[in-house]
Amino acid sequence: MAGMNPTAITADKKRHTLTIRWDDGVSVQYPFGYLSAACPCASCNEERNDPNPLKLIKPKSSVLGAIVPVGSYAVNLIWEGGCHNGIYSWAMFESLRAQHPEWVLASQKTS
Ligand SMILES: [Zn+2]
User: Fold this and answer.
1) How many CB atoms lie within 10 A of CB 49?
2) How many alpha carbons fall within 13 Å on the CB side of residue 36?
3) Interval 49-72 mean pLDDT
4) Separation of 90 CA from ligand 1 center, angstroms?
5) Cα–ligand 1 centroid distance for 79 (angstroms)
6) How far apart are CA 6 and CA 89, in angstroms?
7) CA of 43 relative to ligand 1 center, distance in Å
8) Ordered structural domains, the chain, with CATH
9) 34 — phi, psi (to 5°)?
10) pTM for the full model?
11) Which among 87, 94, 75 has a CA at the least distance from the CA of 5?
12) Mean pLDDT to the nearest integer, 77-101
């Protein structure tokens, strides 16, 4: 399952999902709230790994402001009023797809 690429990425701001169509013809809907909470940047990782139970965790913005392509392997998701640094790689989306079969929309495979 390694090395798949998206053929289309669209944000549905009404349903708060990011839809990725993969090159195997499968479309997957990723909830904004999940993606923003899973922001892979260094400072969000640090915040999630902080063992201090009394620390106030800032609520994450899950309003998607922009999708910025990063090379041919990732996108930078800009959360409005939230984190601007998260680089979400295809590998990350691919493993989320494997973990969340309920997000898979439909397969347009003809064979
Ligand atoms: Zn972040």
Assistant:
1) 7
2) 22
3) 85
4) 17
5) 9
6) 11
7) 6
8) 6-50+61-105 (3.30.2020.30)
9) -65, -45
10) 0.86
11) 94
12) 96
